[in-house]
Design a protein that fits this description.
Pfam family, one: PH
Order of helices and strands: EEEEEEEEHHEEHEEEH
Shape: globular
Organism: Engystomops pustulosus
Structural class: alpha+beta
Number of domains: 3
InterPro entries: PH-like_dom_sf, PH_domain, PI-Interact_SigTrans_Reg
Radius of gyration: 23 Å
Helix content: 10-25%
CATH architecture of the largest domain: Roll
CATH superfamily of the largest domain: Pleckstrin-homology domain (PH domain)/Phosphotyrosine-binding domain (PTB)
CATH topology of the largest domain: PH-domain like
Number of helices: 4
Number of strands: 13
Strand content: 25-35%
Protein name: PH domain-containing protein
Amino acid sequence: MPYVDRQNRICGFLDIEEHENSGKFLRRYFILDTSQNSLLWYMDNPQNLPAGSPSVGCLKLTYISKVSDATKLRPKAEFCFVINAGMRKYYLQANDQQDLVEWVNVLNKATKITVPKPSDQLCPADNVNNQLEYSGSKKQISYKTEIVGGVPIITPTQQDISESANTGDRSNLKRTQSQLTPPYRLSDGGIIKAGYCVKQGAVMKTWKRRFFILDENTIGYFKSDMVWIQSTFYHGN
């Protein structure tokens, strides 16, 4: 059964299919460390290993979209559950049914997506107006709304952008590179902000965690930051 150690981490032994679709499960010691935002696994309990022994596997909690019972998907693997993380699925075996349920619950709780309440959401138009405040007064602007990939994009009209640039207001929309968390880097297009948000599907009204990129002209999203890094690398950006 998973237990809590002295550092308030969820720990315990599980069997993991380290090579996807191999069908071969290996015994590993797992640590769910929310302070490091990671699920780590070791060859054995670190207390039984030489000091400083590294983990043999690590999965960032932000990559995990869902954890569920997989006994029907893998009938030959008893007490099996699956972790959906980006483009990969990790299959693990618990010690018994109660162990399976507890691991699924603690992992889902650690990766739970908090959906914002309607009353807590600020209208994008208000964000634009607030950012264009100048000399203590709010500048009234017009804006346009476009639907791109099922996501509403609200931007100032070209005339207002030009006026803001001439008066120096547009400088208030800039973000410094130091505000961008590593390993994300400013591209030639000028990334304003990058990070994880939750979005509601256009057809299936479910909420999912996605990695968003906001630059001066567009906003886009990917399944994870690793998918974005791979796509920018392969496209030479």
